[in-house]
Write a structure and sequence with these properties.
Keywords: Membrane, Transmembrane, Transmembrane helix. The chain has helices at about 1-25, 35-60, 80-85, 165-170; strands at about 65-75, 90-105, 105-120, 120-130, 135-140, 145, 150-155, 160. With about 170 residues, the protein is an alpha+beta fold. The protein folds into two domains: about 1-60, no CATH class; about 65-170, no CATH class. The strands form two sheets. The chain has a six-stranded antiparallel β-sheet with strand order 1-2-3-4-5-8, sandwiched between helices. Strands 6-7 form a two-stranded antiparallel ribbon. The chain is rod-shaped, with a radius of gyration of 24 Å. The two termini are about 35 Å apart.
């Protein structure tokens, strides 16, 4: 966040200096004096919007191997009117397929780590048990145990749609 603020300030200063220099040297002062701060403000706004829309692609490109984006959330906000034309991704869920765990006697169930990313938010990693055959999931919390045959004991199953994007990514064969 700090580096984005510095980048935004540098974009404004650079544009203000450019407009000032062009006005001073090439145009001999014919531009109105208000144009320098207005151009700086516009450059800062463009830098902020560019950073906002580029966050998802940058974050996705820097994810570790085995991470697959399962679901993303696009936002439209009234104080950012440009988001009504093109919504931006503010958060998303990735499935860590590299650390997927299964049990030989429970082939339809698997434990995966869901990683929650958010713009200006800490990344959270949550282990979740998915039952791919019955389209349900259970959060692995304190009190959850597994029997000798891999059966989950003490879990609260939550039914999900078979078309749920997170379930589909968690249950696909790697």
């Amino acid at each position: 966040m700090f580096f984005e603020l510095i980048g935004t300030i540098i974009a404004g200063v650079a544009m203000a200096l450019l407009v000032w220099a062009v006005n001073r040297t090439l145009l001999k002062g014919r531009l109105p004096s208000w144009l320098v701060p207005v151009s700086a403000g516009l450059a800062m706004l463009v830098a902020t919007i560019s950073s906002e829309y580029g966050w998802f692609a940058r974050t996705q490109a820097n994810m570790p191997g085995g991470f697959v984006v399962a679901q993303s959330v696009e936002e439209q906000v009234f104080y950012r009117p440009w988001t009504y034309a093109v919504p931006y991704v503010s958060r998303f869920v990735a499935v860590d397929q590299a650390t997927m765990r299964t049990h030989a006697e429970q082939p339809g169930q698997r434990i995966v780590d869901l990683v929650f990313y958010g713009r200006w938010a800490r990344t959270a990693k949550v282990p979740v048990l998915f039952d791919c055959t019955q389209s349900r999931r259970a959060d692995i919390i304190d009190g959850v145990e597994f029997g000798d045959n891999g059966e989950a004991l003490g879990v609260d199953w939550i039914a999900v749609s078979a078309s749920d994007p997170i379930l589909r990514v968690a249950c696909e064969e790697v």
